[in-house]
Fold this protein.
Amino acid sequence: MDLKKIPAKYRQYEIFDKVKDEIQEYLKTYIILSDLKSESLKERHWKLILQKLELKIYYNKLSLGNLWSSNLCYHESAIREILNQSQGEMVLDEFLRGLKDTWTEYELELVQYQNRCKLIKGWNDILSNIDDHLNAIQSMKISSYVKIFEEETLNWDDKLNRLRNLLEVWMNVQRKWVYLEGVLKSSTDIKLLLPQEYNRFKIIDADFISIMKKTSENPKLLELFQINGFQKQLDRLSDSLSKIQKALGEYLEKQRNQFPRFYFVGDEDLLEMIGNSKDAKIIQRNINKMFA
């Protein structure tokens, strides 16, 4: 109803102002009621609203009539505050649900490696996804709406940080394994020249292949992450591989000290030459580098 269209001769009466005020209040009440249909309002928010309205009634017994007769306009400010809170909490709730869905279903991308096992690819994408979610969690932690989700937020913060640490170790283990596997498995003489390192690598090799086989059978990242002792196993492999790499480096340094021309070739080429000393083609391929 457009009250401005009512003739002026009627608008001069006191009853007109009274009716106008009542209509405006009805319209305002209707708007509030319409806003109270928001999906963001949960039971906890309705309990707060009922307290503000001083309605002593259970949430699931609430009727439209109860709300209409509770002077919503008078309590509009308090209701708006609760509505804003519910909408802010809904944004955080949806983010956490999405976070859970993403990482619960996240599967590692694998690629076949020399008929030995499948290796993980796309490390940067995985770590980037984790970093994006960790940054979002940091923003959540300072939100004024985070209180009800604080425990879940902190749990995800801790879980993703630990997951990132595990992946960084795993990535380094895979990189070291690929390098040493290529060096130690391709050389016919290396087991005689470096028997201790070769035998240590055989044990590590079996452990790593076992890990990657399990990963291939079930590539869901969070389920792998929750395997008891997995982080310690990767830490141990990383430490052992580093020791073998160090021993190889020291061995190559001794060879270069004995024959300085070896400084003109890289570690992999030098190991290939030393480990295949009877293969004339391999020696010839690298000898030009030493006397170029």
Summary: The mean pLDDT is 83. Residues 150-186 form the longest helix (37 residues). Residues 3-85 form one domain. The CA atoms of residues 53 and 71 lie 8 Å apart.
